[in-house]
Amino acid sequence: MELNANVLKNIRRVEPYVPGEQPQNKVIKLNTNENPYPPAPGVLKALKDLEYDRLRLYPDPAAEELTDALADYYHVKKDQVFVGVGSDDVLAMCFLTFFNSEKPILFPDITYSFYKVWAELYRIPYECPSLDEAFCIQKEDYYKENGGIIFPNPNAPTAVYENLEFVEDILEHNQDVIVIVDEAYIDFAGRSALELLDKYPNLIVVQTFSKARSMAGMRIGYAIGNPELIKYLNDAKYSFNSYTMNLPSLVCGIEAVRDKAYFKEVTDKIVETREWSKKELKELGFQFPDAKANFIFATHPEYDAEELFQALKKEGIYVRHWNSERIRQYLRITIGTKEEMNILFNFLQEKLKNS
Ligand code: PMP
């Protein structure tokens, strides 16, 4: 019997997303853009104080308290917020809910590789306009007819941030389709598209607790948009997907949102380390587009990226490398602590000197 024939066609043809390695031993882990600092102290307390007996019960499917906390934080109404199991879950829900046209959706080539996976999986036609030479999105490419738009800002893996005027230009030319701005790294960058929500009811902004809030392990993401669109997301969630947030994530998420001072302290520290890291990398001869996320996308004109990647890995320093054409000579380096970055730079210095 051809077992294959029973498998959904879309799954058979999809090229699955390949996540960065998650080594379980102690390494210097600069490969999946996690935060090197722990979550806010209140998160640990909430985890410790969590009543064991509550684990018997299902969590609140509407995630009311976390939704309230986020609405408070961003000065929006509660019905403008949708939470999910990491922003990957939220983004997948958005693809499923909003990209439903015969016309192709648009997202950049190069960008977060999950977009292509979801488009293939849900059979959404797509086109991918190339980034320019400097790895910037060319906004004119997004002025043609389309079935929806998604792009990360800052983009991944390039770390290039486009300012609010740029985002607004794209919105201005695309008022009849849904435009999703994936702001996984916005807290390290600049102004958020959230400022444009009142003006553009077709805008959805997606953010995460995985990066600036140090909670990748908790899997919390959210979308903010106009209530009509958020309602559709909730309808889709309850129809297609049985996931609700788990109780520890709900309880801890609230604490993370409330601690504004800690959030600022950690993001400031990472931005400071990033700026210092840029100088160090430049001195070592690396080149990179200006990085505004918690990572730098760097190439060295004289050294093979794959070789450097392997040498670093052997040393227990994990960075990210892709074997795809245009970016084969690049490494994506997450900003760790200053100590971790120092170990990386010292190793690179030795390695480059002896090559
Ligand atoms: N968007 C972008 C651009 C990302 O790089 C990532 C993290 N890999 C995500 C979304 C998903 O993050 P999470 O599911 O952890 O919220």
TrEMBL record:
PROSITE patterns: AA_TRANSFER_CLASS_2 (PS00599). Homodimer. GO terms for biological process: L-histidine biosynthetic process. NCBIfam families: hisC (TIGR01141). Its EC number is 2.6.1.9. It holds the Pfam family Aminotran_1_2. It comes from Faecalicatena contorta. This is Histidinol-phosphate aminotransferase. GO terms for molecular function: histidinol-phosphate transaminase activity; pyridoxal phosphate binding. The gene is hisC.
